[in-house]
C-alpha cells in the first residue's frame, strides 16, 4: 500500500565515487511536498571529454571503410563498435547539430519536460499529413536532429518487447528461404543478450526508493558492463507509491521481474540515467564521449546525406541475387545544402536515419517504389516497392485528474533553489503498466476477434476493392501487391498477439504538470499502417508522412477500452487520496460514441514510436532488408534502425534498437568483405570530381560541389549511377 504522505523533504547525501566507502546522511526540512532525493558532488551539466574526431569538411578522408548515414541511436552505437578495430575507418554523417550549445538541457533528465529541445533547431519536427480518420487533424512528429538523435530528447524509458513478439518476428523470418539466414539474430534469446550488452544497470536504493514504495525490479534482467547507464531518478514523489496498488485494484497486477520477456503488469521502469551524476545517458554520451581517442572515427554534424552513388561497372553475386548494386560513394550537403560533397565507400554504407531518414535516402538514390520515383522524374535504379511502406506508430490518449498531492510540476513552478537543482532535475516519469485483451474486454474479447477477422475479409473482397468503405487501399495506401501481401502476413501475426499474454495497452503515469496528474492509454499492436514517400527531387525538402491513424477501426476500439480502464485506475488513486475529480475528457464523456469523438477529434495522438518503413520482411512481402539488414538488390547497403521492425512491439523502442544496433555491428564485423577493386572509387575518380585529390581529399578537396556534378558525370560517361 502507499506510504503515508509526509510534510517535509528528506535528503540522503551520498559520497559517490569510484570507490564508495562512506555515506553521510542528513535531513533538510524546507516547507513543501514529500520527495526523497540523493545528492552528489558531480556537476549535472558537465560535458564528458570528447574522445572522437569531430571532423570539419576539410578533414574528411577521401574514403572510409564504413560510412554511416545518421548519428542517432543506432548510428553512433555501430560507429563506436566498428571503430574498436583501429584498422577500420568509420565516418558518421549527421544532419543535425552537435548539441553542445544545449548540453545543459539535454543532459538534465527533466530537461525533456521543462527545457525541451522539441520544436527547436535540434528537432526535425516532421509534419504529418491531415489524417482522414482523425477528422482531418494534422500535426508533427518530433525526432532528434542532433548527435544522439531522439535519445537526446526522449523520455528515457527502458521497456523491452515481450518474448512472444521477438520470437514471432524471428519465426516469421525463418519460415521463408529469403530471410532464413540470420533470422535467429532477432529471437528473444539473442536480442535479449544484445540489449543487455548495451547496459550498465544500477539498482534503486535509499530514501527515494523507500518513498516510491520499494517497487520490484530485477538486476538479473539487465546488463552490468555496457556503456549505456541505467538507473532511477535521485528524487521520487510519493504519488509514485500509489501507482502499483492502483493498477492492481484495476486488475493489472505488479510485474515482479520487469524487462525479462514478460510485459504484462505494472512496474517502475528504469531510465537511461547515469547514477554517478544523474545525467541523461544517451547514445552520444554512452558510446562516443566515453571513448578514448580514436583517430579512425570521424563524425561530422550538420551533414545531410542526400543520396548514394552506385557503381555500374561491377555488380556482385550476393546470395540468391543474380546482380546487386554496389554503393561506392555517399553524397552529402553541409548546412543548407547549397554545396554538395562526395565521400568514397570501401566496404559498406549503413543507413541509420530512422523511419523517415533511411527510406528518404534510399528513394533519393533511385531505390524504392517505381511509381513514387517516376512521378517526380527520378531514375529507378532498383525497384523496391516496400521502401517507405509498413509504417506503424503507437497512439495514445490520456485522462487528466486534478491532483490531491504535489507533483513534480508544482515543484518546478516554485522556481526556487531546489527546483533548479541537479537532484530535482533528475525527476522524470517512470511508472508504467501493460494489460492484455482479456483484461480489457473480458468475455467480449471473442467479439473483437470476430471483428478483426471480418474487417480483413471485407478489405480483401473483390480483389482488394473491398466492401463498403473497407478496402485494401484504405488499409495499405499506395501499396503494391507485394506490400499488400506483407500487410496481410503481419496482420495475422498482430492478430495472434491479441490472444496471447502480451500487453495490448500501456498505461503511463505523468506527474510533471502542476496541479494535475494524467494517465495515458497507448495501443501497442496497431493494425493501422501508413507510409512515407518523397514528392520532390530535392533531398532537403521534407518527406511526406501519412501514418494512416485509425484506418483500421479496431485500433480506436482498443484505445477506447484502455481509457475506460484508466478511469478505474483513477478511481483507485482517488480512494488513496492522490487525485480528485477528472478534468479531461471530463465526466460527461462516457458513452462509446462520446469517447470515440474525443479520440478522433483531439484526444488520440502519437506516442512517438514510429517504426517499419524499411521492413525486415521477404522481398515478395514488400520487405526492404533481409535478416542481416542488407537492402535487397544491393551488395553493401544496410539499414539499421527502428525502420526495419515489421510490426510494433509492446515496448518503448530504445531498448530494442540498442540491441539491434549492437547486433548490426556484429553482423558487419563478421561479414566484412572488400568490395571488388573494380567497384571501388579509384583515386583518379575522386581527384577528377574534386579537382584536386590527395591523400586526405574528401569534402571540399576530394568531394564534389554540386555545380561540378553534371559535368563530371557526363565526362565519366556512365561510370557512376546517381
Automatic annotation (TrEMBL):
The lineage of its organism: Eukaryota, Fungi, Dikarya, Basidiomycota, Agaricomycotina. Catalyzes the single-oxidation or sequential double oxidation reaction of carbohydrates primarily at carbon-2 and/or carbon-3 with the concomitant reduction of the flavin. Accepts only a narrow range of electron acceptors such as substituted benzoquinones and complexed metal ions and reacts extremely slowly with O(2) as acceptor. Residues 1-27 form the signal peptide. It catalyses: a pyranoside + acceptor = a pyranosid-3,4-diulose + reduced acceptor; pyranose + acceptor = pyranos-2-ulose + reduced acceptor; pyranose + acceptor = pyranos-2,3-diulose + reduced acceptor; pyranose + acceptor = pyranos-3-ulose + reduced acceptor. One of its GO terms (cellular component) is extracellular region. Its EC number is 1.1.99.29. This is pyranose dehydrogenase (acceptor). Its cofactor is FAD.
Amino acid at each position: 500500500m502507499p506510504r503515508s504522505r509526509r510534510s517535509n523533504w528528506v535528503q540522503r547525501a551520498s559520497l559517490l565515487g569510484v570507490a564508495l566507502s562512506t555515506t553521510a546522511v542528513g535531513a533538510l526540512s524546507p516547507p513543501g511536498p514529500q520527495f526523497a532525493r540523493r545528492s552528489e558532488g558531480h556537476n549535472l551539466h558537465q560535458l564528458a571529454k570528447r574522445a572522437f574526431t569531430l571532423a570539419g569538411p576539410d578533414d574528411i578522408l577521401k574514403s572510409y571503410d564504413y560510412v554511416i548515414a545518421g548519428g542517432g541511436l543506432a548510428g553512433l552505437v555501430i560507429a563506436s563498435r566498428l571503430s574498436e578495430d583501429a584498422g577500420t575507418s568509420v565516418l558518421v554523417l549527421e544532419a543535425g547539430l552537435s548539441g553542445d550549445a544545449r548540453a545543459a538541457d539535454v543532459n538534465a533528465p527533466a530537461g525533456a519536460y521543462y527545457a525541451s529541445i522539441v520544436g527547436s533547431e535540434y528537432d526535425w519536427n516532421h509534419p504529418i499529413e491531415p489524417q482522414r480518420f482523425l477528422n482531418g487533424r494534422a500535426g508533427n512528429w518530433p525526432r532528434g536532429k542532433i548527435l544522439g538523435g531522439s535519445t537526446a530528447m526522449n523520455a528515457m524509458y527502458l521497456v523491452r518487447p515481450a518474448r512472444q513478439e521477438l520470437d514471432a518476428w524471428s519465426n516469421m523470418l525463418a519460415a521463408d528461404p529469403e530471410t532464413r539466414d540470420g533470422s535467429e539474430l532477432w529471437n528473444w534469446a539473442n536480442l535479449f543478450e544484445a540489449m543487455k550488452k548495451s547496459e550498465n544497470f544500477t539498482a534503486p536504493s535509499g530514501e527515494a526508493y523507500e518513498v516510491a514504495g520499494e517497487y520490484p525490479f530485477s538486476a538479473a534482467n539487465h546488463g552490468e558492463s555496457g556503456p549505456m547507464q541505467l538507473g532511477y531518478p535521485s528524487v521520487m514523489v510519493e504519488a509514485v507509491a500509489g501507482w502499483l496498488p492502483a493498477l492492481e485494484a484495476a486488475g493489472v497486477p505488479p510485474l515482479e521481474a520487469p524487462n525479462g520477456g514478460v510485459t504484462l503488469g505494472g512496474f517502475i521502469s528504469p531510465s537511461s540515467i547515469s547514477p554517478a551524476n544523474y545525467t541523461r545517458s544517451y547514445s552520444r554520451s554512452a558510446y562516443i564521449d566515453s571513448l578514448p581517442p580514436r583517430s579512425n572515427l570521424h563524425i561530422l554534424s550538420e551533414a545531410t546525406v542526400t543520396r548514394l552513388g552506385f557503381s555500374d561497372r561491377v555488380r556482385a553475386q550476393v546470395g540468391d541475387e543474380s546482380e546487386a548494386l554496389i554503393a561506392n560513394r555517399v553524397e552529402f550537403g553541409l548546412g543548407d545544402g547549397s554545396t554538395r560533397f562526395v565521400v568514397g565507400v570501401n566496404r559498406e554504407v549503413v543507413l541509420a536515419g530512422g523511419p523517415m531518414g533511411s527510406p528518404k535516402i534510399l528513394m533519393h538514390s533511385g531505390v524504392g517504389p517505381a511509381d513514387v520515383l517516376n512521378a517526380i522524374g527520378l531514375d529507378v535504379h532498383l525497384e523496391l516497392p516496400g521502401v517507405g511502406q509498413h509504417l506503424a506508430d503507437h497512439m495514445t490518449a490520456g485522462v487528466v485528474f486534478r491532483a490531491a498531492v504535489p507533483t513534480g510540476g508544482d515543484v518546478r513552478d516554485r522556481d526556487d533553489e531546489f527546483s533548479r537543482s541537479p537532484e530535482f532535475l533528475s525527476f522524470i516519469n517512470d511508472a508504467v503498466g501493460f494489460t492484455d485483451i482479456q483484461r480489457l474486454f473480458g468475455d467480449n474479447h471473442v467479439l473483437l476477434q470476430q471483428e478483426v477477422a471480418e474487417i480483413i475479409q471485407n478489405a480483401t473482397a473483390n480483389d482488394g476493392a473491398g466492401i463498403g468503405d473497407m478496402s485494401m487501399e484504405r488499409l495499405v495506401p499506395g501499396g503494391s501487391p507485394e506490400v499488400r501481401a506483407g500487410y496481410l502476413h503481419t496482420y495475422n501475426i498482430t492478430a495472434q498477439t491479441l490472444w496471447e499474454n502480451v500487453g495490448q495497452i500501456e498505461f503511463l503515469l505523468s506527474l510533471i504538470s502542476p496541479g494535475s496528474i494524467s494517465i495515458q492509454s497507448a495501443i501497442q499492436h496497431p493494425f493501422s499502417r501508413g507510409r512515407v514517400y518523397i514528392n520532390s527531387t530535392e533531398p532537403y525538402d521534407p518527406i511526406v508522412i501519412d501514418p494512416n491513424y485509425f484506418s483500421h477501426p479496431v485500433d480506436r476500439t482498443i484505445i477506447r477500452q484502455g481509457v475506460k480502464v484508466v478511469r478505474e485506475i483513477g478511481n483507485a488513486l482517488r480512494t488513496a487520496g492522490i487525485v480528485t475529480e477528472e478534468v479531461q475528457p471530463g465526466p460527461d464523456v462516457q458513452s462509446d460514441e462520446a469517447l470515440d469523438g474525443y479520440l478522433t477529434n483531439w484526444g488520440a495522438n502519437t506516442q512517438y514510436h514510429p517504426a517499419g518503413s524499411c521492413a525486415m520482411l521477404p522481398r515478395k512481402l514488400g520487405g526492404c532488408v533481409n535478416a542481416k539488414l542488407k537492402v535487397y538488390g544491393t551488395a553493401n547497403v544496410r539499414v539499421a534502425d527502428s525502420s526495419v521492425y515489421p510490426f510494433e512491439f509492446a515496448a518503448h523502442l530504445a531498448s530494442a534498437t540498442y540491441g539491434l544496433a549492437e547486433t548490426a555491428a556484429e553482423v558487419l564485423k563478421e561479414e566484412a568483405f572488400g568490395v571488388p577493386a573494380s567497384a571501388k572509387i579509384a583515386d583518379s575518380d575522386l581527384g577528377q570530381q574534386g579537382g584536386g585529390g590527395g591523400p586526405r581529399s574528401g569534402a571540399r578537396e576530394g568531394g564534389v560541389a554540386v555545380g561540378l556534378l553534371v559535368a563530371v558525370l557526363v565526362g565519366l560517361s556512365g561510370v557512376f549511377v546517381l
